[in-house]
Specification:
heterodimer; A: FAD/NAD(P)-binding domain; eight-stranded mixed β-sheet; seven-stranded mixed β-sheet; 15 helices; 33% helix; globular; B: mainly alpha; Non-ribosomal Peptide Synthetase Peptidyl Carrier Protein, Chain A
Chain lengths: 477, 87
């Protein structure tokens, strides 16, 4: 085998975590190549064009926003580790987010990037709970959420020691679960802490041009550091020999070798690639939580419809929030509305078109195997149902058909779309329920990074790539 | 290399890995961790930048020698001088 096909490190998947790992390794002189099956980078957080319009997928908002000068948080660590300056991301802050519960969102909690706003809302709407909420917040702040060997504890059980009103409990879990939980009903407390900090104690922001900006910065850093990447060239098999990943067989038939392999494609997805003579430990089951999302392009700013205040709305039409794979194709009772126009881009710029996105839980199995015609018809039907459901939680329109009249284009993704473009089994956005903090596998030189390693959100994804590259490769050199 | 030059090398590295830190008043005899927000990831980066830029190896057992600028200078200056004597 010639030297051109041997790398110090091969990375499978050019999503946020794979790119971040690649930047670290290339920066410190490793010969690295990222293999990506798709023709664009970003994985679950990417973008695509239809009819000359660019649509973001995944990213509603970048979580973990902190003001310049705030140190020791995930965003700061990430920027330092990847040698990125804040100006390169040019993050614009959210205006406000609401958690709206009840048939028309009668009970609502507002939060912004200033935690005092949420605290004030809890004090006003749940006066009996505010002391508990403050104690919960202290417990969250004190928790070591980046420990690679923490023991799993139920978040519901722990949170109930502080919050005794079930409505408030459900309202707090709703955004936390929607933005990162890979397990149904409950989550591991460490994961809850990561998300509570990312959403409530830190906050939301995005670059004016969305996820593309973040990906462009990552790609530039990776290229400048000397990293290689091969697009439209996935890894078909990991050939295992003597307990190690001996080589990688690529989609195009080539075979390459590497001292270390980092896989960002998920734990069960990685296990499927491994070909070996001996039996490996069973991989975790693919996650069950998937989503549909509708994207509606408007001929005017959402503010002109009266929807100018909310950046994001987490809604649930009753007092009890069910975070689970639905029986039906979609569960429209709860969801997330995102209006990307409602970030604060400053006085001189606004997005050219209005955008209204709505995300709901969906059942992969009920979408995966439909004949094409039924699939299309179901998408149309659910598109309408989601629009109707979401509007219950937004200010009433001046005329009932105003949204339809303002719509210039629509798109929708389903669990099937997710699997098709990202390779994630079951359309699972947040990966397997069981996380692997150390990122180890049965093969000594094969490690996991990304969503199944267990740091959440896009900042978490990048930190995961960084941590695994540091822990398994750089710190041991 | 003098000890002051060695401190400058370390400060230059810190300036690059933690551009959000103000390094104008760093005290030589105080632990870096106590006056700057540097975590274990940042210390790993100091070690790795020393290797990348200056071919200086710091084994894990010696990380503690990098606690303050003074201790950095004590520990690293002989390494730098040994290296330049060789070349």
């Amino acid at each position: 085998m010639n030297s051109r096909s041997h790398y110090d490190v091969a990375i499978i998947g050019a999503g946020m975590s794979g790119l971040a790992a690649g930047i670290r390794l290339a920066h410190f002189g490793k010969k690295v190549c990222i293999f990506e099956r798709h023709n664009t980078v970003g994985g679950l957080n990417s973008f695509y064009s239809i009819g000359g319009r660019k649509f973001d997928v995944g990213l509603h908002a970048m979580t973990n926003f902190v003001q310049p000068g705030v140190k020791g948080t995930p965003l700061t660590k990430l920027l330092r580790q990847l040698r990125i300056s804040r100006e390169e991301f040019a993050l614009c802050e959210q205006k406000q987010t609401r958690i709206a519960f009840g048939p028309h969102g009668e009970t609502s909690l507002r939060f912004t990037n200033d935690f005092a706003v949420l605290e004030g809302e809890v004090a006003e709407k749940f006066p009996a709970q505010i002391d508990g909420f403050r104690r919960l917040t202290s417990a969250v702040r004190a928790y070591d959420d980046v420990s690679l060997d923490a023991q799993p504890v139920s978040a519901r059980t722990l949170v109930r020691q502080y919050i005794t009103d079930p409505l408030l409990e459900h309202m707090l879990f709703c955004p936390v679960m929607y933005y990162g939980s890979s397990s149904e009903h409950d989550m591991e407390f460490g994961q809850f802490v990561i998300m509570f900090k990312a959403l409530f104690l830190e906050g939301f922001a995005r670059p004016f041009d969305g996820v593309r900006v973040i990906l462009r910065v990552l790609l530039e850093k990776y290229r400048a550091a000397g990293g290689e990447r091969r697009m439209k060239c996935g890894v078909k098999h990991i050939v295992a020999r003597d307990g190690r990943a001996a080589s990688l067989l690529l989609d195009n038939g080539d075979e390459i070798t590497a001292d270390h392999v980092i896989s960002s494609i998920g734990a069960p997805e990685t296990a499927r690639l491994v070909q070996s003579g001996h039996r490996l430990q069973p991989a975790p089951a693919p996650g069950r939580l998937s989503f549909v999302e509708t994207i509606t392009i408007l001929d005017r700013q959402p503010a002109d419809l009266g929807w100018g205040s909310d950046t994001i709305v987490f809604f649930n039409d009753s007092a009890k929030f069910d975070y689970a794979c639905p029986e039906a194709q979609v569960d429209p009772r709860s969801g997330v509305i995102c209006i990307p126009n409602n970030f604060d881009y400053g006085p001189d710029q606004q997005l050219a078109e209005g955008i209204f996105r709505c995300t709901c839980l969906a059942n992969f199995e009920r979408w995966a195997h439909l004949p094409e015609e039924t699939y299309r018809a179901d998408k149309l039907r659910w598109y309408a149902a989601l629009q109707k459901s979401a509007q219950r939680f937004l200010p009433k329109l001046a005329a009932p058909d105003l949204l339809t009249r303002a719509t210039v284009s629509t798109d929708m993704f389903t669990p099937r779309t997710i699997t098709k473009f990202t390779g994630h089994l079951g359309g699972a956005i947040y990966g397997a329920a069981e996380k692997n903090r150390q990122g180890r596998t049965d093969l000594a030189n094969l490690y996991l990074c990304g969503t199944d390693q267990g740091f959440l959100g896009i900042v978490g994804a990048m930190l995961s790539g960084i941590s695994m590259a540091n822990y398994h490769i750089l710190a041991k050199a | 290399m003098t000890k002051d030059e060695c401190k400058k090398v370390v400060l230059d590295i810190i300036a690059d890995i933690a551009p959000d830190e103000d390094l104008t008043n760093v005290k030589s005899d105080v632990r870096l961790r106590d006056q700057l927000q540097l975590d274990s990831m940042d210390f790993l980066d100091i070690v790795m930048e020393l290797r990348k830029r200056h071919s200086i190896e710091v084994p894990e057992a010696d990380y503690i020698q990098l606690a303050s600028l003074d201790s950095c200078a004590e520990y690293l200056t002989p390494k730098f001088n040994a290296l330049s004597a060789k070349s």
